[in-house]
Q: What sequence folds into this?
């Protein structure tokens, strides 16, 4: 009996709670890395670990685009045997790719970066393959409706990391990154045992990836490139028009009033496989479910922003008195977050449908809109720019919803149902 069959199909509310718990624990591990660096080594330590963490996020983004998200969208509607075979293929591909990327990170750290930057990069490279595996198994467990097991991986990450940091006698950036990586590595190792993927063959895994995942994954990878290019361009333009202080102010407000950074992954982890399953049988049911996810995200975001904004001088209490004059940014940032939450269900539906062309087009439209807004509104001050960005966020959200409504109502045929040619069954 497969793990899927053993599961009791927990209700949607329980899956959402496990998604929130998993993402909260994951975010706590990342926050602990920054907090420990700040407390033990000051601003320079934060800068060093940020380089390593940003490198990890860059690699993780491409891994999700080329492997994890196409894998979940393709296998969620399939049979238990096909899901297990897909997990085995995805696992061996992630491990091999992780080893290659880790070698490159280590080489760059040794040749191009000075200490302590290079030492932190080497610490990251030692655990990078298992960090990618941890993220893959986390998504796989949510695909199989085993959210409690996925949350366990994140809990292990936080617990092991905290124990290692507490034992450090001479803290350094490399030691903190190594402690963080070890925690995630333990999660990656335990996840392999929990998913029970068996013994995959690399040749078949590569063929499966090229046949089943790459046609959609390349669109997601291009979408990621467009997203990062747009974000970088927007930041440069904002700096040019308003200066570093304005950029720091809006980033500080976003760090407090951007609940979608937590809610988005928490809903998407169990939401994407569920939307894919429903889409394989009935697109109308998938749309209704995706719409329900957006409604829930909007409601939670509205409560969070309203309650947070009701506390007077919250920015100055958290970041210092110099941020008090920027409290007017709270509401436009919150309105933009409501737009992101309203589009969440549409994004998941498009990913489940593997609508790569639509996703890339929408991402390019979003990046172009963001650049245009900064160019037009930037010279008029931060207050005007913030509200223009909020309006643009709703404009983009409507475009995502409109694209999702065009998803074909015909049932989709799940991938990977039949055994591969050459398998001995």
A:
């Amino acid at each position: 009996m497969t793990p899927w069959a053993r599961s009791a199909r927990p209700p949607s509310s329980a899956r959402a709670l496990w998604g929130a718990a998993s993402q909260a624990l994951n975010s706590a591990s990342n926050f602990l890395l920054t907090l420990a660096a700040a407390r033990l080594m000051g601003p320079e330590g934060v800068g060093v670990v940020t380089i390593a963490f940003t490198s990890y996020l860059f690699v993780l983004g491409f891994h999700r685009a080329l492997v994890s998200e196409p894998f979940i969208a393709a296998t969620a509607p399939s049979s238990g045997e096909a899901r297990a075979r897909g997990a085995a293929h995805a696992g061996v591909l992630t491990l091999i790719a992780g080893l290659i990327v880790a070698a490159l990170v280590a080489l760059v750290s040794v040749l191009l970066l000075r200490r302590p930057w290079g030492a932190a990069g080497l610490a990251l490279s030692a655990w990078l393959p298992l960090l990618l595996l941890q993220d893959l198994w986390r998504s796989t467990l949510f695909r199989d409706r085993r959210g409690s097991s996925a949350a366990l991986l994140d809990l292990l990450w936080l617990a092991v990391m905290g124990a290692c940091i507490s034992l450090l006698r001479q803290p350094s950036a490399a030691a903190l990154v190594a402690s963080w990586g070890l925690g995630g590595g333990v999660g990656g190792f335990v996840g392999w045992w929990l998913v029970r993927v068996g013994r995959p063959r690399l040749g078949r895994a590569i063929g499966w990836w090229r046949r089943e995942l790459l046609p959609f994954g390349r669109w997601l990878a291009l979408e990621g490139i467009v997203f990062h290019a747009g974000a970088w361009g927007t930041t440069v333009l904002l700096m040019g028009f308003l200066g570093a202080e304005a950029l720091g102010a809006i980033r500080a407000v976003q760090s407090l009033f951007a609940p979608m950074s937590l809610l988005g992954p928490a809903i998407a982890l169990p939401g994407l496989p569920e939307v894919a399953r429903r889409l394989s049988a009935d697109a109308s049911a998938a749309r209704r479910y995706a719409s329900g996810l957006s409604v829930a995200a909007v409601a939670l975001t509205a409560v969070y922003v309203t309650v947070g904004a009701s506390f007077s001088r919250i920015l100055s209490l958290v970041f210092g008195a110099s941020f008090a004059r920027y409290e007017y940014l709270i509401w436009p940032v919150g309105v933009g977050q409501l737009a992101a939450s309203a589009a969440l269900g549409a994004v998941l539906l498009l990913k489940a449908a593997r609508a790569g062309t639509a996703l890339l087009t929408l991402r390019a439209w979003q990046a172009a809109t963001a650049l245009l807004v900064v160019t037009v509104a930037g010279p008029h001050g931060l207050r005007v720019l913030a509200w223009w960005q909020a309006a643009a966020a709703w404009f983009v959200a409507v475009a995502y919803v409109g694209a999702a409504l065009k998803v074909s109502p015909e049932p989709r045929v799940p991938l990977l149902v039949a055994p591969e040619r050459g398998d001995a069954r």
Notes: The two ends are 17 Å apart (CA to CA). The chain has a mean pLDDT of 86. The first helix runs from residue 3 to 6. DSSP finds 15 helices and no strands in the chain.
